[in-house]
Write a structure and sequence with these properties.
One of its GO terms (molecular function) is catalytic activity. The chain is of the alpha+beta class. About 25% of the residues lie in helices and about 15% in strands. The protein contains four helices and five strands. It has a five-stranded antiparallel beta sheet, with helices on one face. It starts with 10 loop residues before the first helix and ends with a helix.
């Protein structure tokens, strides 16, 4: 990727350019993967495209093919690095309301093992839906393709 696909005031663009240090675990012309400074669990890695893209809402089909193909390779390398790792959360927060803090697309690889104490919360709202409401939501989404 060329320098003109990065921006000046982005933390991850600065890491990609080497202006800010990182503990890099994988890098090629398309992506850079490095330890997340927070280390939710040991081995927590971020993968960022070497093109400034704010989040998945801004990806083209070409961007997705180019950058997301590395997810399995990075996930497997992390898993193999520590025999304690039994599973992994692979997540991305898209937009501030969803918890995105750095406005440069990135994927979290968070290793998991039994008893690690991490809780990811979801909720089940199935009791608030009937056949008509499910169909209306599905139809609204389908209409956007």
């Amino acid at each position: 990727m060329s320098e003109n696909e990065l921006i000046d005031d982005c933390l991850f663009c600065k890491i990609i350019r080497g202006e800010i240090g990182s503990y890099t675990v994988f890098e090629n012309d398309d992506v850079k993967a490095f330890l997340d400074i927070s280390q939710v669990n040991e081995g927590h890695v971020l993968m960022v495209p070497k093109k400034h893209i704010v989040n998945f809402f801004d990806y083209t089909a070409e961007d997705a093919q180019r950058f997301l193909q590395y997810i399995p390779e990075i996930a497997n390398a992390i898993k193999k690095s520590n025999p304690r790792i039994q599973a992994m959360n692979i997540t991305s927060n898209n937009g501030p309301v969803a918890g995105q803090v750095v406005m440069h697309s990135h994927i979290h690889f968070i290793p998991r093992w039994e008893g690690d104490g991490i809780k990811f919360f979801t909720r089940n709202n199935a009791d608030q839906y009937d056949e008509a409401k499910y169909q209306a939501v599905a139809d609204a989404i389908k209409a956007q393709f």
